[in-house]
Model the fold of this input.
Amino acid sequence: MNTLPNDPVIMLSVVNTLLRDKYSSLEELAKTENLSAKDISDRLEIIDYRYDEGSNQFK
Done:
């Protein structure tokens, strides 16, 4: 996967599912999927979600 859904709510679901099932961190997800962790975070901040390292998810 090298693209994520444009809709931030759908993107949130996809990213949190990937973090739960496949990746141990946002950085690992971004690196492996050839994405930018900052871009992911910036897009999800639009809907007031931020990455929480402790739970490895956006909250």
